[in-house]
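Appendix C reproduces, verbatim, an entry submitted by the partner laboratory led by Prof. M.T., so that reviewers can inspect both the input and the predicted structure.
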Amino acid sequence: MSSTPQVSVVVPVLNAVSTVGEMLRALAAQRFDRPWETIVVDGGSNDGTQALVARFPVTLVVEPKRGPAAARNNGLLLASGDLICHLDADTVPTRDWLRALVAPFEDPTVVVVGGKTVSLPSQTPAQSYMAASGRIDAVDYIHRPIFPFVPSRNMAVRREAALAIGGWANECITGEDVDFCHRLLARFPDSMRYAERAVVLHRNRASDDELRRQAWGYGEGVAHLYARYPGEVRWRRTDPLRVAGKLIGYSLAPIALSGAHRLGLANVGRVERAHYHRIWKWAFWRGFFSYRRTGSYA
């Protein structure tokens, strides 16, 4: 690789020894003919992640601040490239990922790009639920009317633009990509694009407890956004009652579908999806209200 990279790939990691090696091998195999560099920012792993990453021809740095936003800021400041591409440690980029992700930047009005994220084959019911949920690909978020964004697990941004908005918000432990894109689009309107051919494979959370923790964190992140942008998203007095009604519905749905299944009116897949939807929604809203109550991440 050239000593003057035009593209930098920044990867935040934390206790990712079981996945980061596969990710880095796939990254090294990219079909990409421009100079590029890889910066791995470790958040304080204690499982051998740093030793494993050190075997690869990448820049490894340690970031003492908590959260992926701080790690990405560290990488942003260290990066030599004009374009900063982001991956997570539990992803596997396909061979043409990098080439496809940076292609839209040929248009000078493009500032941020999100690629296509596809779930790796599911091995557990929790993974099957997340794969079918529509929560991992940028296409599910990029055109929504409020807080459109591209997930940071498969994103590229112009370094100059990222620095112009002050980088990532370190205080956002989750939902940092929503906040980042919101501030970016406020400064550079209509500058977000979707790169369908920039495909990464994503390893979803395998266990029920991991799924609960993920949903809780998402809930905290959304509550934080309400606190950061009260003029744009308003939490009304009636909203807790609305949420409570929905949670009752999520709780009753698996019971009703189990009865329907015994009568031959619903298949086992519908019952399982309702069960995991209940798990997700209850954990999400518990995380949301925890942050609303304490003003901090658990």
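The chain has a mean pLDDT of 96. Additional entries are available on request from the coordinating office.
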